[in-house]
Design a protein that fits this description.
- The structure is a single chain.
- Helix content is 58%, strand content 0%.
- The N and C termini lie far apart (60 Å).
- Helix 7 crosses helix 11 (180-190).
- The chain is mainly alpha-helical.
């Protein structure tokens, strides 16, 4: 056996335990999310959000909140508890690299117009570019039923508001009453 081959084999033996202990990749772990969030994180169903192109910190914060039962959900609290912090980070980086695919939804143009106005007045500072993926999460193109459930969780106190969101939501509701949330939801749902 040549010295070169022997050194290569020794290097592989040294690396093998590291590879074996590192566990599944972010992509392999992400396959467990496919049933609800799509194979690449672009949801094809109305009650699950798209998580493709999501900022990794937003993904990690959401999963940690689910693990600690600090975020309302029907099933994610139980699912998140099954992952280690390292696995969550691996999934976060996998989904961050995926291209977000958006689907056309049926929207009301009057509500879309009002929602755009409300977004520009109250939401644009944190949810830039019409709610495109960023460090405040993705609103643009999310399924409208999911957005409705999520907003109801905030409004009903089942989910804590981040940063200044409550003040902005309250101001939008004060300005437009019952039409504020449906208008914002139709606006975000119209983005594709």
């Amino acid at each position: 056996m040549s010295k070169k081959v022997r050194n290569l084999l020794l290097a592989l033996l040294v690396l093998l335990p590291t590879v074996a202990l590192s566990g599944p990749s972010g992509q392999a772990l992400a396959f467990t999310c496919a049933g609800c969030h799509g194979t690449d994180g672009s949801s094809v169903g109305p009650s699950s959000p798209s998580i493709a192109a999501m900022d990794p910190d937003v993904f990690i914060d959401a999963m940690q909140a689910y693990k600690r039962d600090q975020r309302n959900s029907t099933i994610m609290n139980r699912i998140a508890k099954g992952y280690s912090d390292e696995q969550i980070k691996a999934m976060a980086w996998f989904f961050a690299k995926q291209e977000l695919r958006l689907y056309t939804q049926e929207t009301d143009q009057q509500l879309v117009s009002l929602g755009e106005k409300l977004h520009n007045s109250y939401c644009e500072k944190c949810h830039e570019e019409g709610g495109r993926p960023g460090d405040s999460g993705t609103l643009a193109g999310q399924w409208m039923p999911y957005l409705d459930y999520s907003m109801q969780d905030f409004i009903d106190g089942r989910r804590p508001y981040p940063r200044k969101m409550k003040r902005k939501v309250d101001a939008a509701i004060e300005e437009q009453g019952e039409q504020a949330m449906p208008a914002l939801i139709h606006y975000y749902g119209s983005q594709h």
